Amino acid sequence: MDSFQYRNGQLFAEDVSVADLAEEYGTPLYVYSRTHLIEQYNTLVAAMADVEPVVCFSVKSNTCAAVINTLAGLGSGADVVSGGELFRALRAGIPASKIAFAGVGKTRDEIRYALEEDILFFTVESEPEVERINECAVELGLKGRIAVRVNPDVDPKTHKYTSTGKKENKFGVDLSRARAACERAAALPAVDMVGIHMHLGSPLMDVSPYVEALEKVKDFCLEMKAKHATFRYIDIGGGLGIKYRESDEPFTPAQFADAVLPHLKEMGLQVVMEPGRFIAGNSGILVTRVQYVKDNAFKRFLIVDAAMNDLLRPPLYEAYHEILPVTETSETFFGDVVGPICESGDFMARDRDLPTASEGDLLAVCSAGAYAFAMSSNYNSRPRAAEVMVSGDRHQAVRERESRDDLVRGENIPEW
Ligand code: LLP
Asked: pTM (2 decimals)?
């Protein structure tokens, strides 16, 4: 959270007062630090410099064009998971040659789009998908590149909803079936089998699952490399954890590099990485204004103007997000920060010590740069928040607040 610091008791985003931003753009408001994005990207690339990875920013974590464009400017690629994300990544300036397309349910339409754009590769999640990509490529007279996503059955020790590399998950092909899947792909006329992909889950706070997974796939990769001239990539996915609370101790990029580089060097393949949260997570805050202070017999609720439609992580994963007062205070109360949505799950913080605040005060929900706006919705017919990017003392709305008209765009009432 280095880019969000207090100065004379006021929270700043880089060199801009958060209260001024709230005044100018309204609340709820997402604020992103461009400097933080750049630092995170550069730190990771520097730590992994020995293998010169292709870093594909995981666009699902933050779909904001200004964020993607900032990273494109640093040389980043993109990990996309739908035709929509592919469209966003290309539009924001990521070259197709650095885009990896993942996801268990790619439609023919999405596959054709990606083939026509000539992306880096598809990470394929099942045997039928290999056949489908081949068929689409034959139809178009093109050739697709594919990396088979291997499910290494490693426990990432994260929330059950965000764990992806265990055998009971829907993702990837079991290691026991991967050889057959790769051989089949290699034999098809319109696909090149260019590597393997893994993504264990998210967020990981420990490097050992990565090491375990690499140890499991290493011999297989060396075998494929020896057999197939096209086989040249190992995509190690994303999942690098970040600090959500003071006591969190995620591994550093240097610790990550120390743990994985020996294995990667032994394989001698081009490394691809897909970090999302590591780059964007602590680049953002969600600024919200207290509407009411409500006490009941048990506890106090701060009712704010942001809600679970803006930030779904606390109700969905019981995720912890630090909450800071925009005007510094050391006074606290025990209770909840909740939104106006008609669900008991609509909370940003529950049963904990929180900064004391009154009606009209501003709060900053921290670590809201990844899987925050990107997972927002219009539930309860709430227009989505605006997004602002800050760089030094500059700031700009990079996505306008939705209007009520936006809420009903495309809706029709039948004449009958
Ligand atoms: N690559 C693949 C194939 C993925 O599925 C994901 C995330 C990533 C990369 C990026 O993971 P990251 O580096 O950001 O951890 N909504 C959840 C997280 C879901 C992650 C889904 N896949 C949350 O808010 O925690």
From this structure: 0.97
